[in-house]
């Protein structure tokens, strides 16, 4: 076996970093999917997105012969999607883990474990930074190459009948794999990272005092070196900032430190935080940044805009990928896999009650359906639609309750318990 070329290990890190898309930016800092997670604005956006997707249960529905649908509680796949995808993880943990990979790396993967009959029995998350997807030039079939934590490779070929890998992706240009928002917008993320590091270094050196020591006479190099080292030792870190300085005879301190406001340092950080929020489609106020969006001023409008415009596409992508990877041909037409966004869309108590009243009046929901949404126990007789309320000419409320004569019984002024 021939020996490979000698490589200086001190240079290897830079080569590897550039090879994986995390090289230095014009701002002078290296940014990758791994380091970007340490930027507060990026971390906050990814957390909000991942936890929002995790909060919405992924449910299996079965279509009914007479129209409509119901939750397929008896189907083996239901409990895997809703509660326990594998013996070690809950469903919410799996969704949050995959969503974090998705919004940092542009791809999220899970290995699909099947029984001898091809039925799905478990889902195990895979690290996006260890997966490589290629396409065979002859068969045109996708090929997954994964490197385990112990360094051993694992390979899968895509099988449309029994997909081996469950794959989420965003920002794709080729339909084969997604692209990381961090890598696509590396320069912008680099400026954000640089501002973060500048702030840390500024305060890490104590910020004050900063400047030069002046002397009317000549100072030999050894004495100048000693004085600088003594000064940095006494004042050069955050825990030693603002100490009283004692000068040698003939020395004078002249401040030259640039104030962060004068250097527009704070403005740069605010702008970059708002830009990161815009990149991820998160309202700036939600991550403590300045700025606004076009979804309205109220919290309710912002939440609805976030669910519709930011999460709408990822939700649909995950639903379609789940149906493609989990359902066989026999179940594909009859079953649907969808997120239940009820908890995400819940408004304040008064708004919910107003909406429920309208839903009851228009026979859109029964009392027990509404109580189930709120997590309350059912009531006897609550599965029957309530007669709609009507308003008479004198302004009083009446409830249509057909009796033997078909007349309407008025509702007492004090309500049902009067």
List the helices and strands and how they pair.
Layout: H1 9-19, H2 33-36, H3 40-55, E1 58-63, E2 69-71, H4 76-82, H5 91-105, E3 107-114, E4 120-126, E5 131-135, E6 142-147, E7 153-157, E8 165-169, H6 181-184, H7 186-204, E9 211-215, H8 221-235, E10 251-255, H9 265-280, H10 299-310, H11 312-326, H12 329-332, E11 335-339, H13 342-345, H14 349-361, H15 367-373, E12 389-391, E13 397-399, E14 409-410
Antiparallel strand pairs: 1-2, 1-11, 3-4, 3-8, 5-6, 6-7, 9-10, 12-13, 13-14
Structure characterization notes:
The chain has 418 residues and is α+β, with helices and mostly antiparallel strands. Helix content is 39%, strand content 16%. It has 15 helices and 14 strands. The chain has a three-stranded antiparallel β-sheet. The chain has a three-stranded antiparallel β-sheet with strand order 4-3-8.
Structure summarized in a few sentences:
The chain has 418 residues and is of the alpha+beta class. The chain is built from 15 helices and 14 strands.
């Amino acid at each position: 076996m021939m020996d490979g070329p000698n490589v200086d290990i001190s240079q290897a890190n830079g080569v590897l970093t550039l090879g994986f898309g995390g090289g230095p930016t014009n701002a002078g800092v290296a940014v990758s999917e791994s380091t970007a997670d340490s930027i507060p604005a990026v971390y906050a956006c990814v957390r909000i997105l991942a936890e929002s997707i995790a909060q919405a249960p992924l449910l299996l529905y079965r279509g009914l012969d007479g129209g409509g649908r119901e939750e397929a509680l008896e189907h083996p796949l239901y409990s895997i999607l809703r509660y326990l995808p594998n013996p070690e993880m809950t469903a919410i943990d799996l969704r949050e883990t995959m969503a974090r990979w998705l919004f940092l790396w542009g791809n999220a993967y899970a290995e699909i474990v099947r029984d001898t009959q091809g039925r799905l029995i478990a889902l195990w998350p895979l690290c996006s930074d260890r997966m490589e997807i290629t396409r065979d030039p002859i068969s045109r079939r996708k090929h997954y190459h994964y490197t385990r934590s112990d360094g051993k490779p694992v390979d899968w070929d895509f099988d449309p009948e029994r997909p081996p890998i469950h794959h989420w992706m965003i920002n794709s240009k080729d339909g084969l794999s997604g692209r990381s928002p961090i890598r696509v917008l590396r320069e912008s993320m680099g400026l954000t990272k640089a501002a973060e590091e500048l702030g840390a270094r500024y305060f890490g050196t104590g910020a004050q005092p900063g400047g030069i020591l002046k002397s009317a006479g000549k100072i030999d190099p050894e004495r100048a070196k000693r004085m600088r080292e003594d000064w940095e030792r006494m004042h050069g870190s955050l825990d030693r900032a603002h100490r009283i300085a004692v000068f040698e005879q003939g020395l004078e301190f002249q401040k030259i430190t640039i104030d962060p406001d004068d250097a527009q340092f704070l403005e740069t950080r605010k702008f970059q935080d708002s830009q990161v929020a815009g990149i991820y489609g998160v309202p700036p106020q939600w991550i403590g940044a300045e700025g606004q969006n076009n979804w309205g001023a109220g919290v309710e409008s912002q939440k609805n805009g976030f669910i519709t415009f930011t999460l709408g596409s990822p939700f649909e992508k995950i639903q379609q990928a789940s149906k493609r990877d989990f359902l066989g041909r026999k179940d594909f037409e009859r079953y649907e896999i969808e997120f239940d966004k009820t908890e995400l869309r819940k408004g304040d108590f008064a708004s919910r009650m107003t909406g429920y009243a309208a839903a009851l009046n228009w026979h859109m929901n029964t009392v027990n359906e509404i109580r189930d949404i709120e997590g309350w126990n059912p009531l006897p007789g609550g599965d029957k639609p309530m007669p709609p309320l009507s308003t008479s000419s004198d302004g009083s409320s009446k409830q249509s309750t057909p009796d033997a004569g078909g007349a309407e019984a008025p509702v007492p002024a004090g309500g049902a318990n009067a």
